[in-house]
Amino acid sequence: MPLIYGEGVHAFIRLQLEIIKSTADHSIFASTPSKSTHDSQDLYEKDCASGLSENRGALTPWIDDFENSRRITSSPDDIESSFEMTNLGLRISLWCIVESTLDDGRRNLLAYLDCFCDLEWVGIRLREAKDIGGKPSGRFYRYGGLQKLGRLELGRNYDAQFTVLHIIQPTRRHEWGSKAAGRTPCSVDYGNLVKAGYQVERLLGPSERSLYKDNFKVIFEHELGDEKLRKLPWIFIFKHAIRTTRFWVLIGIQNVNLGTMIKIDSSKEDPPASIYDAQQYQCSYDIGYYVPFWIYANEKQVSHFEIVKLSVRRALISSRPGYMIKAILKSDVVV
């Protein structure tokens, strides 16, 4: 399945949408927020407490949310239930128990998935969404993590009803919640450098986790900055597979302006001096050293016959304003 350029984290949701077209396996909904994707606390639980839990749908944008789902097994013979994505959300029929009713009439449901964890039923919690007028809409969104319900509980609980549900898959406008506000996404395409024999020797950034990464491209978010809206930069260190040519590229954000810098590393040290230099720039950048900002092309001669050019343009990435950056290698033969 080819990635749509600039699609970012939505690519994993699109993959799941393709999967559910050809399977009735409920384990695809057995994700739960992981600490590696949402800091040290459960983002969805925090959002639920703050009234922002509508940002969770049946599908997750993070592959890491399946890291605790290794013991989930599907049991399609117990509950025959197909599902499909519609314009109203995921349409699926599940056994449900009404856990509580809010003051405004909205329901909190416990819904049984057709899968098990350690021979126990697995369930998800659903909360009814509001319509435009603030009344119960009949559609639901997920909140909280997976629930282990006990294998026999369904048969003993006569309050459970087989219910046709529409589970909202939030729009990209707000699906990542309040924590994403202020982050600027960037897509960096360096496929042209790879084809010319360069490789990413090291990627340094404020986070260990990028939104998307392959051999030719990285998509990442700049973290929230300090009171001056300064974000820590990302630094790509490139090295040629055969020649000694080495350089690094710094990409940073201040306010909403993009900052880029290309620096040549001519040392033969291992680790190369450019890594140390890049780390120093990363630290000094945070305490206020001047970094030039460009929103147009930036280029640097990195060898006697090669020039690296960064083409930059504003773009929507996962429906948020960001930057698309492409590194292009140009020949500059010196006679």
From TrEMBL:
PANTHER family: HET DOMAIN-CONTAINING PROTEIN (PTHR10622). This is Heterokaryon incompatibility domain-containing protein. It comes from Hyaloscypha variabilis (strain UAMH 11265 / GT02V1 / F) (Meliniomyces variabilis).
